Amino acid sequence: MVNDHHTYEKLTAIASEKNVMVNEHLKNHTYTRLGGKADFFVTPETYEQVKEIVRLSIEDDIPFTLLGNGSNLIVKDGGIRGIVLNLKQLTSIKTTGTTIVAQSGARIIDVSREALSKTLTGLEFACGIPGSVGGALFMNAGAYGGEIKDVLESAIVVDWNGDLYTLSADDLDLEYRSSNIPEKGYIVLEATFSMKVGNYEEIKAVMDDLTFKRESKQPLEYPSCGSVFKRPPGYFAGKLIQDSGLQGKEIGGAQVSLKHAGFIVNKNGASAEEYIGLIHFVQDTVKDKFGVNLEREVKIIGED
Question: CB neighbours (10 Å) of residue 257?
């Protein structure tokens, strides 16, 4: 465990005591309500603080993990050693003409609502995506035929050396549910979206329809990581799971949702071990029955 007073003093000198928590339960910061403790949970308020924290982790050889808003993430029961950086305080969203600039800690849902308020079209698909702007770029988030790459113009990032860059959307290699952000070790600080002027009533109608579809079909009444698996070519993950007879299957407090088989919910105080175990069981069963490999969309981090 990295939990010494010397590191605490350095972190608080950068980000102040109110923004540095010791032995923080990560289940308080994930949509699944799973996860052990972080040695240091740090929530910087400025880009400069982010750069300094990254450089501290390098200079003092402290393990470093970036945690978004925890919507597409499972943290294991053993938690995460070293510094866990969370950008939840970087939430500014500003519009100039047809351009929206949003900081990485803002919710992509709120960016889509900002677009609606300014009668800008292009982000309607994001009105039901629970992740942060940074997380949306990280995985090129998408839904209902739209994805981040359709509207992203550029991003400001910090690399693992603590250096800041402005990159074009093309620099990020955005593909289906993926980007080069994890490979390059980028920390997204800000995104610029290029929008088009639309019709307010038409934009609102699309967003209302997508919101209804999400709320009526997804098990929002329980904690979950969202859609667990990527869509396999030629198939639907939820249909394969349902046809495998797995809907309602439980391991401990984790359950394959009765409302949508593509979701696994934390129904009754599940551990991360139980939740991950159910993911593996679903993958093995679908492979045995249909010969299809279900690839995880959700990311798993931390220690057992």
Answer: 22
